[in-house]
């Protein structure tokens, strides 16, 4: 049974629909990251899942209990959760005083409170900050303090809204390192929004892609980034080779797809006559100066139209009847002598081609 379940959530603000029919399950101990462009509804969804807002329609279950319409049940569930906002609230007083609020809010003024506060500060690596003025901290230190305050009550679920969005790279790396350690140490469910897709891949076990208020895809990080469900998801996660085509031949799972007159092969469940999007990751494209024997089913001759350096890699664009981007190390490109205007052979395996159905032709 899921720890948190959302069923057909909708949310309206002043007549504007922000969330559209979202259903989602989050298991106990899972780390889920919600990604999507600005204004997609990520924070709104997070706040509804964290019971800080009510949906306009739909239901939220916590530990099998429908907590949507009962204030008493929402309070019961909220006491098992903590929420860290993108810009955390900082109260007057010391860091220790601020962390203590996490216990006071839950009515846990026990004799062991002091020990729990020190343990929470130690867990985040902020013990030496305990007596400092909280409002004199840097932005990154305030975020760390907010994490300590969230953890002192030992919540079952931790909600994080863009935990590193306003931080400099050094502070962001520190917060992320702490989160990685927490996830390993505690069997705690974590639900987070993030603008940093790399962070989502590093921290999350599962990712949900939210766009225009709709949850377009959920899955493991590799599935999201290598097998996007729609063109919109593919574009958002940075897939660069997205080609329009039509399935013109099919034998079992092997399809021949026409791409503007060029034909490539791919493994797909799409049917004959389907209009599709084809995606190919640049790192799966192989270059050669002459046609070589290869196990790859897709080999095309083309002309290099652009060569651009990015760190230790070169991004090479080739016109082979359709535009194709690949990457090479600078050393490999130098050894091959590849320059703009050169004729090259590009190849990629049918297993590396991802196919997304656009629509079916009426045959």
List the helices and strands and how they pair.
Blueprint: E1 4-13, E2 16-26, E3 31-35, H1 42-49, E4 57-62, E5 65-66, H2 71-78, E6 81-84, H3 95-104, H4 113-124, H5 139-151, E7 157-161, H6 169-185, E8 189-193, H7 197-203, E9 206-211, E10 214-219, H8 221-226, H9 231-236, E11 241-251, E12 254-259, E13 262-267, E14 274-280, E15 286-288, E16 298-310, E17 313-319, E18 323-329, H10 330-336, E19 343-348, E20 353-360
Parallel strand pairs: 3-8, 3-9, 6-7, 7-8
Antiparallel strand pairs: 1-2, 1-4, 4-5, 9-10, 11-12, 11-14, 12-13, 14-20, 15-19, 16-17, 16-19, 17-18
Task: Explain what this protein looks like in three dimensions.
- The chain is built from 10 helices and 20 strands.
- The protein is an alpha+beta fold.
- The strands form 4 sheets. The protein has a 6-stranded mixed sheet, with helices on both faces. A 5-stranded antiparallel sheet has the order 13-12-11-14-20.
- The longest helix is centred in the middle third of the chain and has 17 residues, at 169-185.
- The radius of gyration is 25 Å and the shape is elongated.
- The mean pLDDT is 90.
């Amino acid at each position: 049974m899921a720890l948190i379940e959302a069923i057909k959530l909708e949310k309206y603000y002043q007549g504007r629909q922000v969330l559209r029919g979202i259903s989602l399950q989050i298991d106990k101990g899972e780390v889920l990251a919600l990604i999507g462009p600005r204004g997609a509804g990520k924070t709104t969804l997070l706040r509804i899942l964290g019971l800080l807002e009510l949906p306009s329609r739909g239901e939220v279950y916590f530990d099998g209990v429908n907590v949507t319409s009962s204030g008493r049940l929402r309070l019961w569930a909220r006491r098992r959760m903590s929420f860290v906002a993108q810009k955390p609230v900082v109260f007057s007083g010391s860091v220790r005083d601020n962390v203590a609020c996490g216990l006071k809010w839950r009515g846990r003024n026990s004799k062991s409170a002091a020990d729990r506060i020190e343990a929470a500060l130690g867990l985040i690596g902020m013990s030496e900050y305990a007596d400092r003025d909280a409002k004199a901290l840097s932005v990154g230190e305030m975020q760390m303090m907010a994490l300590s305050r969230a953890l002192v009550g030992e919540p079952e679920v931790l909600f994080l809204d863009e935990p590193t969005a306003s931080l400099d790279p050094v502070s962001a790396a520190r917060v992320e390192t702490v989160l990685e350690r927490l996830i390993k140490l505690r069997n705690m469910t974590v639900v987070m929004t993030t603008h940093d897709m790399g962070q989502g891949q590093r921290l999350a076990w599962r990712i949900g892609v939210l766009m225009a208020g709709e949850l377009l895809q959920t899955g493991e990080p590799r599935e999201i980034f290598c097998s996007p469900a729609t063109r919109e998801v593919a574009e958002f996660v940075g897939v660069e080779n997205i080609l329009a085509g039509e399935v013109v031949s099919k034998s079992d799972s092997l399809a021949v797809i026409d791409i503007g007159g060029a034909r490539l092969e791919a493994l797909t469940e799409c049917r004959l006559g389907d209009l599709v999007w084809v995606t190919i990751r640049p790192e799966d494209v192989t270059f050669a100066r002459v046609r070589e024997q290869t196990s790859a089913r897709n080999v095309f001759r083309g002309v290099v139209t652009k060569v651009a350096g990015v760190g230790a890699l070169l991004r090479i664009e080739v016109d082979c009847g359709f535009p194709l981007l690949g990457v090479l190390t600078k050393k490999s490109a130098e050894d091959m002598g590849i320059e703009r205007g050169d004729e090259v052979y590009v190849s990629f395996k049918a297993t590396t081609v991802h196919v997304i159905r656009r629509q079916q032709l009426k045959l």
